[in-house]
Amino acid sequence: MSAISYLVALATIKVSIAILYMKLFSVFHKNWTYWVVIGILVCQFIEEFFVFIFQCSPVRKLWDATGTVEGRCIDLYVFYMISFAIRLVTDILIFMLPIPKLWRLQISARAKAGLIFIFGLWLL
User: Fold this and answer.
1) When comparing pLDDT for 69 and 13, which is higher?
2) Residue 120 lies inside a defined structural domain of this protein
3) Residue 18 structural domain
4) What is the pLDDT of residues 97-119, one digit of tens each?
5) Cα-Cα-Cα-Cα dihedral of 11, 13, 18, 21, to 10°?
6) Most-buried pick from 44, 72, 84, 109 (CB within 10 A)?
7) Position 38 pLDDT exceeds 80
8) 114/124 Cα distance (integer angstroms)
9) pTM of the predicted protein model
């Protein structure tokens, strides 16, 4: 159950950050980039959710703590590596979304670098 909560929380946080950036920095003709990133995040959540739920056959074997249910579960090592790579790419995409807008601000280069650093803190 904690894995499902983790997936929901992670997807919600990333989508909310993308929506925040869309509201703060969007220009009508460039709004599609935010929607593409949000679409990727939602698809990633749906895919990870279904892989987690259906990793065992029968499904109830995943929840069986006694070990009495016959069946098998797949090894998720490769899935976790691919999922990590996709999460890294989406994190970098979300980080890069506001950079063009921040770079066009009429402030000093030092202040721009500071703003970009602050917006990038969520990557940690």
Assistant:
1) 13
2) no
3) 2-96
4) 888 888 888 899 899 889 888 88
5) 180
6) 44
7) yes
8) 16
9) 0.81
| pLDDT for res 41 | 94
Give a three-class secondary structure readout of the chain.
CHHHHHHHHHHHHHHHHHHHHHHHHCCHHHHHHHHHHHHHHHHHHHHHHHHHHCCEECCHHHHCCCCCCCCEECCCHHHHHHHHHHHHHHHHHHHHCCHHHHHCCCCCHHHHHHHHHHHHHHHC
84's tokens: 């990590």
Asked whether residue 71 is domain-assigned, the answer is yes
Look-up of token digits 């919600």: 12
Q: Is residue 87 part of a domain?
A: yes
Judge residue 41's burial from the number of C-beta atoms within 10 Å of its C-beta, 0-12 exposed, 13-18 middle, 19 or more buried. Answer: buried
* Any domain includes 73: yes
